[in-house]
Each structure stands twice: as structure tokens, then as C-alpha cells.
Amino acid sequence: QDGCGPSIAQQLGSAAAESPFRRVLSHIRERSMGLRWRAFYDRMWIVTALCLVIGLVLFYWPIGAANCIPTWHGCAVMTWDGPEVGHVMFSTPNCWLPRWKFHNVDLPHEYRYFLPGAAAMFISAAALHLLRHAIGIDRGCMIAVPN
């Protein structure tokens, strides 16, 4: 004690509940709990996962339905460039790297918007993921410095 100002016991209080540090921390908690984005933030991972699932469905649907891989300028179709039909495909030395050739065809009209939609969903999921980590739950802080 130097006699200048209140003592340490007076500054901190006799109980933890009346400490100024406790009051600052509870004030920070009350302010962060009252924000409207908090409810969205807590469920943002659901929206991110939903965007990823929708993007995967939009990308893989034409592969299964139209038997081609969608690209920006059409549809890539594979053809087997190996032994003739009736031959066991994977009995040759090339069984680990079979000879497939790709050629482009027009994507059926009903699948033209699937690839841009999938790209939009993937970009949205990435943006939401980055936003979730950039916002953080509570950016409030308190610094205690001795006299």
C-alpha cells in the first residue's frame, strides 16, 4: 500500500461477483448475446453444409443422368480405346491405367445450369466458411495492467 488511491482489496472487491473484471466480462457477454446475428452464426455451419451438399448433387446429377462429365463448354464423354467388345477389359497389362478417350458433345439442355449452380454453391460454402471463422464468437477483450 502506498496510500495513493484505493487499496487492491477495494479495487477488486471482497467477492468475485462484485469485481470490476467480472462486471466487464458480463457486459461483454450481454452485448454479444443480444446481437441478432448470433442465432444465424450458431447455425451457419448448417447453411455451409447444405450449400456443399446441393453443390455436390448439382455437379454429380448430370454425370449419372446424362452419362457425361459437365464442363463449361459442353459435356465430356468417355469411350473405351482398348480391346474389342467381348474381351475382358482389365486382363491386359493396362488394367491399372485403361485407355479411355474423352470427346466433347453438347450437354443436354436440361442440364445446362447444373454446373454454374454447383459452382455458385461451392463458392457460397467457401465464403460462409471464411466468414464464420472471420467473425468469431466474441471479439470483446479486457486487458488488466498493474499500476
From TrEMBL:
Record's keyword annotation contains Transmembrane helix: yes
Keywords assigned by UniProt, alphabetized: Membrane, Transmembrane, Transmembrane helix
Residue stretches spanning the membrane: 44-63, 113-131
Protein name: Uncharacterized protein
